Amino acid sequence: MSLDLPTPLVSTTWLAAHLHDPSLRLFDASWYLPTAGRSGHAEYEAAHIPGAVFADLDALADERAPYPHTMPSPERLAERLGALGIGNGHAVVVYDGSGQNFSAPRLWWMLRTMGATVAVLDGGLPRWRAEGHAVTTDVTTYPATTFSPNFDPSRWRDLADMRRNASDGGEQVVDARSPGRFSAEEAEPRAGVRGGHIPGARNVHYATLVDGDGLLLPAEALQARFAAAGMQLDGPITASCGTGITACAVLLALDVAGARQTALYDGSWTEWGSQADTPVATGH
Question: Which of 3, 57, 149, 264 is least surrounded by Cβ atoms within 10 Å, i.e. has the fewest?
Answer without folding.
Answer: 3
